[in-house]
Amino acid sequence: MAPRRTAALRVVTNPRPAPLVSNAVLGTLIFIFTEAMLFAGLISAHTITKASSAVGWPPPGQPRLPVANTAVNTAALLLSGVVVFYAQRRFRRDRDGAFMPLVLGITLGAFFVGFQGVEWVRLIGEGLTLTSSTHGAFFYLIVGIHGLHALGALVALGWAALRLRRSVLPPSAFGAAALFWYFVVGIWPIIYLRVYL
Amino acid sequence: MSRFLLLAAFLALVPELAHACAVCGAALDDDQGRVAYLVTSAVLSVLPLALLGGFLLWLRAKSRRQSRLQAPPQPRHN
User: Fold this and answer.
1) Cβ distance A47 to B36 under 8 Å?
2) CA distances (Å), B72 to each of A151, A191, A192, B66, B75, in order?
3) Which of A19, A196, B10, B61 is deepest in the core (most CB within 10 A)?
4) Rounded distance, CA B54 to CA B68, Å?
5) CB A158 within 8 A of CB A28
6) Closest CA to A152 of A174, A184, A117
7) Residue A59 and residue A73: Cα distance in Å, rounded?
8) Per-residue pLDDT tens for B28-73?
9) How far is B46 from chain A (nearest CA, A)?
10) Is A123 exposed, middle or buried (0-12, 13-18, 19+ CB in 10 A)?
11) Can you tell me the ipTM of this complex?
């Protein structure tokens, strides 16, 4: 009978090291990369069309965009980004204390989207529509897609706030929702500079 | 009639002088358009690389930070 061979017992306490980036944040980052390219393509097309316009920009007979009003709205959106960032920092130390800043950030973001809606109604009343000119088409396409992203990010932040209220919000989920909001906030000044000015 | 044909042939040979682009009018003065094409082409070419490169650099920095935090403390030699 062959002698039995025994192996030393190896205790594995942590077989999988903690990932550098959570799945939620990685997925959001990949989504943000694709959306960044979408916005880059749209802004590039707008820039070339604007620069090549033979009749000036905006075309004659088309209403001017509300530059000053939207500047105030831009400030509200940027402030919202700062407040959400503060909420995320606070979340690491004191989870309950992050709720109010998060709600404030969502409120500022909702104000931005609502104000944009009011401006759209006014512009449509003045004759700027999707089919009135290339100017109108680009404006509603670019700003509209940004608005859709803002709405999606607000829904994600609202979901995070509800989970935070019930103390069941994992940091990775908060990180992913906040990251998407930072993208929405970060891309807006570029849109404002290229489309409105 | 032959004079008109001659003129048409002449204009066909020198479209830049005739401003023959009747559709877009871009041939009149399109320096801005050319610059816009160049700049946006450069941005669209570099942006994916910048995004990916930035992400990898961020991962590298995060990995180094994590390694530093997890490293066992060095024994002291008096």
Assistant:
1) yes
2) 46, 48, 50, 12, 9
3) A196
4) 21
5) no
6) A184
7) 25
8) 556 888 899 999 999 999 999 999 999 999 999 999 988 888 777 6
9) 11
10) buried
11) 0.76
Q: Is B51 in the A-facing interface, judged by CB distances under 8 Å?
A: yes
Terminal-to-terminal C-alpha distance of chain A: 90
Query: Which pair of structure tokens corresponds to residue A189?
Result: 């000044």
Structure tokens at B60: 């590298």
Q: CB of A106 within 8 A of CB of A147?
A: no
Contacts within 8 Å (CB) and 24+ apart, A54-59: A54/B24, A54/B25, A54/B26, A54/B28, A57/A135, A58/A133, A58/A135, A59/A133, A59/A134, A59/A135
Cα–Cα distance for residue pair A83/A112, rounded to 1 Å: 14
